[in-house]
Design brief:
The chain is mainly β. The chain is built from five helices and 35 strands. The N and C termini lie far apart (48 Å). The strands form six sheets. It has a 22-stranded antiparallel beta barrel. It has a five-stranded mixed beta sheet with strand order 3-8-9-6-7. A hairpin with a 5-residue loop joins β19 and β20.
Length: 630
């Protein structure tokens, strides 16, 4: 059966299966929609803003969607819910790093390898390794997320380097009303996989608190592919008065794993031990005509990696080690100078880098690779004006200096129109950029300390309309991206060298529909098409996801079908392109009060497919468990 026909039958089967459930149905919230009518977001402005009047395209994935999918990490859910976004995987649990790692994020075909072009934030502050410039995908646990806001397209005006392709902002739990909620869960299943955790949220008067711990384990679906992870987070806030709030956040993750290598060239004795941590402190103010914040942050880690060896080869004599850090200060203030005006002044400073070395196993001596730090300082101005009830405009620019790449600028301008019948039209032109990383400048044979920043221009138009009193949303985007000075490794005078020589031209469109179609029954669908003049790995030409969910006061169920086509797993002379269909289901039943039993099954069709070349994905996997909230 061909893929389109199979996909159509699966979608029909999903709807029929979910519609078959009867009984009294509770009223649903609108969290399955990409954005609600009164949705406000912080990503892209720092302050709360009506997403309808922002020219950039923002997708919001709420806590209900994140938790009901029962994924311990937010990234698989985002891959389904956000059109134009794709994240590479290699197994049941865990992404890992280095050779054989996954967790590469692509947004509209922009992402890099490793990913340095899509920025991940926690509460608006950047999270990436100081030497390599990429996020660590295993850091982003679902239990700490109140929601996730995703900007599809450049956001360098607000966030600077690495936001060239887009931004993923994980907003942690911040209870708004007095409450105490403790959530305990444990589930296990295929390949001896275990996911167990506990979290607590509290608000009492002026104090807010959120904390949690999670443990993950799997033997993996291949030999030498185990994964173990321990992660914890904590957030504490205090309202000094009606206008001032102070807060602190911390997050620690440790994981160990192995790289089994490709199926045609297995790797033995590969071991990775990674410790990552982050901490922030903040002071926020909020008045009638102005609001802002000053925040200081730290993130860093220690990596111990033995890349292993192939059969018949001598074991590696070295163990790779590195310690990295990123410290910074971010400040902004939004002032309403007159009616409908929001003018934001911002300042960012970052100091980042680290030390990398090889430890010689035979005699425990050290062979230096790099010991380097850099800094970046920038200021930005963003002017938004709600001219009238149906029209808003925005213009802004970021000016900064990078200690290696020099001065840069990142402008952005856009228009938003609110039309009759809850319709919206947006248009935006923006410039994104990404400074070269320490790895590209100073590490390994291709290093080139003369590299310049990569730049990208984005041109985009969007249309959105709400129907049925806001219960149904439909929308579409068209975009064109042009990047220059892409950093590539070329042979120069007989040796590899990183040079600013690449170019990227991507165009495409995205369509999405979401809403509540009947009491307790919700459906969402999104499709993205991407045309690339120069194909890159892990950016599908076609991505379709259809999801259906049903809520009853004692029963919940959901199912989704994802269709991927034109996905390159290798490019160049030996290019490989794959297509596949994934059918996933999950269900939960309330046994007693807030004690729920759940089950999830992924890849029900037991599709044989690869996302990383040479790393076949598992067949059908099943996890079942209990969740208790009190």
């Amino acid at each position: 059966m061909n893929n389109p026909l199979r996909l159509g039958l699966l979608v029909l089967l999903n709807i029929l299966c979910i519609s078959a459930f009867g009984g009294e149905v509770e009223q649903l919230s609108d969290t399955l929609r990409t954005v609600a009518l009164d949705e406000v977001v912080a990503t892209g402005t720092g302050t709360a803003a009506d997403v309808r009047l922002l020219p950039v395209t923002v997708s919001v994935v709420g806590e209900n969607v994140l938790t009901e999918r029962m994924e311990p990490n937010v990234l698989p859910t985002l891959t389904e819910q956000v059109p134009g976004m794709f994240v590479t995987q290699r197994g049941v649990l865990g992404y890992a790093v280095s050779t054989g790692g996954s967790g590469g994020i692509k947004m509209r075909g922009v992402g890099g390898a490793p990913n340095t072009d899509v920025l991940v934030l926690v509460d608006g502050l950047p999270q990436y390794a100081g030497l390599y410039g990429h996020p660590i995908a295993d850091n982003y646990q679902t239990q700490m997320a109140e929601r996730v806001e995703v900007i599809r397209g450049p956001a360098s005006l607000y966030y600077g380097s690495n936001a060239m392709g887009g931004v993923i902002n994980i907003v942690t739990h911040q209870p708004k009303t007095d409450t105490v909620l403790t959530d305990v869960h444990v589930q296990g299943g295929s390949f001896c996989s275990v996911d167990a955790g506990i979290s607590n949220r509290l608000r009492h008067g002026k104090w807010t608190e959120a904390a949690g711990f999670n443990y993950l384990h799997t033997n993996g679906h291949r030999d030498n592919m185990h994964f173990d992870q321990y992660s914890g987070f904590a957030r504490l806030g205090y309202d000094i008065d009606d206008h001032w709030t102070i807060g602190a956040t911390g997050n620690v993750t440790y994981f160990s794993t192995a790289n089994p290598g490709t199926v045609t060239a297995p790797v033995y004795d590969s071991r990775q031990r990674i410790l990552r941590g982050m901490a922030t402190v903040s002071v926020q103010n909020r008045y009638e005509r102005t609001e802002g914040a000053v925040r200081a942050y730290y993130s860093g880690g220690r990596h111990h990696i033995n890349e292993g060896h192939h059969i018949g080869e001598t074991p590696s004599p070295n163990e790779y080690n590195h310690s990295d850090l990123m410290v910074g200060v971010s400040a902004y203030q939004t002032v309403r100078f007159f009616r409908g005006n929001y003018t934001t002044f911002g300042f960012d400073y970052q100091h980042f880098g680290g030390h990398a070395w090889n430890r010689i196993l035979a005699d425990n001596t050290i062979k230096e690779i790099v010991n380097k730090t850099q800094f970046e300082v920038a200021g930005y101005l963003d002017f938004r004006q709600h001219v009238c009830s149906w029209f808003a405009l925005e213009a802004g620019v970021r000016l900064g200096h990078h200690s290696a790449a020099g001065f840069y600028y990142a402008p952005q301008a856009g228009l938003s129109f609110l039309l009759p019948r809850d319709a919206q039209i947006k248009a935006v032109v923006s410039r994104g950029f990404r400074n070269p990383t320490i790895r590209e400048l100073y590490m390994y044979a291709p290093a080139n300390d003369s590299l310049k920043a990569v730049t990208l221009w984005n041109y985009e138009m969007a249309y959105r309309q709400y129907f049925l009193d806001g219960r149904l949303l439909a929308g579409a985007n068209v975009f064109y991206l042009h990047a220059t000075n892409m950093i590539e490794t070329r042979m120069i005078e007989g040796r590899p060298r990183n040079v600013n020589t690449g170019e990227l031209r991507n165009a495409g469109f995205e369509v999405e529909v979401a809403g509540r179609v009947w009491r307790g029954l919700q459906i969402s669908a999104n499709y993205s098409f991407l045309h690339m003049e120069n194909p890159v790995i892990a950016a599908p030409a076609h991505k379709l996801n259809v999801a259906v969910g049903y809520h009853h006061e004692r029963f919940r169920a959901g199912t989704s079908v994802q269709y991927i086509a034109g996905l390159y797993t290798a490019v160049g002379d030996n290019a490989k392109k794959v297509s596949f269909v994934l059918w996933n289901c999950h269900a939960a039943v309330r046994l007693w009060r807030q004690l729920w039993a759940s089950v999830q099954a992924d890849n029900l069709l037991s599709q044989t497919y690869e996302i990383n070349d040479g790393f076949p994905m598992p067949g059908t996997t099943v996890l079942a468990g209990l969740r208790f909230m009190f």
